[in-house]
Amino acid sequence: MARINGSAEVMRHFPKPLSPEENAQWIESIEERFETDGFGFWAVVRRDTGELIGAAGLARIRYGAHFTPAVEVGWRLAREAWGQGLDEIIAVTVPVNVPSQKVMERLGMKRDWSANFLHPKVPEGHPLRQHWLWRIQRPA
To answer: What does the pLDDT look like over 88-137, one tens digit per residue?
Structure first.
């Protein structure tokens, strides 16, 4: 992570690249956020090689602004990992979980009406076995 945080190209939209000491402090602050908030940034690794390529997750905004209190989604990726995002992200929910469906809609996800399914890990006959599939795809 020190290499990524120390990269002028990766950090060009931040005040400056981080020194090794500042990187260590940044990682320590992430660990503290998990202790205090229960969430934070996670290491992102390539599945095929196990190589660390960055960090991504959620963080509470720790400064005052007109939109705080708030939780931010964020990521920092090594240059070689840029432009390799997912072609599609899916979400599943039960039909009665309208609050989650509203979140999916706000994210721009669309329900795939042809893809209703019975969740294989929910027992047969259970009222929550029926699930709906939602999708968002990378623009062409």
So the answer is: 999 999 999 999 999 999 999 999 999 999 999 999 999 999 999 999 99
* Other residues' Cβ atoms within 10 Å of the Cβ of residue 137: 13
| Domain residue spans of the chain | 2-81, 88-137
Tell me the residue type at 60: R
CA distance 112 to 101: 12
> Which architecture does CATH list for 2-81?
3-Layer(aba) Sandwich (3.40)
Residues in the chain: 140
Contact in structure between 104 and 93 (CB atoms under 8 Å) = yes
Residue 30's alpha-carbon distances to 34, 53, 57, 127, in angstroms, are 7, 16, 10, 40
